[in-house]
Specification:
25% helix; alpha/beta; 207 residues; globular; 5 helices; Rossmann fold; single chain
Length: 207
């Protein structure tokens, strides 16, 4: 199977069997670092936004998705309290430093509605001490604890923190059958053996 098709099908399962439960179908969601839209194209929501500096991104997004081409650490071109969910996957490690990450988290907090959530997934350097640096564009080393602290400093309350969630990559090298993804999600005890990415869900509490 072609890599692009494989990634799309993997995300289809991840959304259907895991992530969709946090995204209200009548709500609004922003995919931060949306890339080619594997998540935002397939998640169900009334209003969908993608943010990225990749000039190739818009060509891969569905027409209904509003694309934001901007530096995520600058003020977002979205109104305050306008989003139900901010989702990001394998993106924060590409930011230049923790100041940029803090500014990004502050913007997410500003744009989320009270009761809204940010969902963060990314490589956990705790379990990838060497391989983490095999990518030229990895700058910021994070664990579930350091990112959780950063989220708290920006006003979020961490609801769920999973140190080991998905394997580091399911689209490079060996590609397990897509059906195995659904099976893997149903058995969290397996995550402790194969998971190299953290998953954090944090909430902007109602004041």
């Amino acid at each position: 199977m072609h890599l692009v098709d494989y990634r799309r099908k993997v995300w289809q399962v991840l959304i259907r069997d895991f992530f969709q439960k946090w995204v209200p179908a009548e709500g609004s969601v922003l995919d931060l670092g949306c890339g080619w839209g594997e998540f935002i194209n397939q998640v169900k929501a009334a209003r969908k936004y993608g943010m990225d500096l990749n000039p190739d991104s818009p060509a891969h997004l569905e027409a209904s998705i509003e694309f934001k081409a901007q530096d995520c650490s600058r003020e977002w071109t979205l109104p305050e309290a306008s989003l139900d969910v901010v989702f990001t996957s394998n993106f924060f490690e590409h930011l230049p430093d923790k100041a940029a990450l803090k500014a990004t988290l502050d913007q997410a907090y500003r744009c989320l509605k009270p009761g809204g959530r940010i969902i963060c997934m990314g490589p956990n350097i705790k379990y990838l001490p060497g391989a983490y640096w095999d990518f030229w564009d990895h700058y910021l080393p994070l664990t579930e604890l350091s990112l959780g602290e950063g989220l708290s400093l920006s006003g979020f309350r961490v609801e769920s923190s999973v140190a080991r969630f998905l394997p580091y990559s399911m689209s490079q090298g060996f590609q397990p059958p897509v059906a195995c993804v659904a099976w893997y999600l149903r058995f969290p005890w397996l995550w402790r053996f194969f998971g190299k990415q953290f998953l954090i869900v944090a909430k902007k509490d109602v004041e």
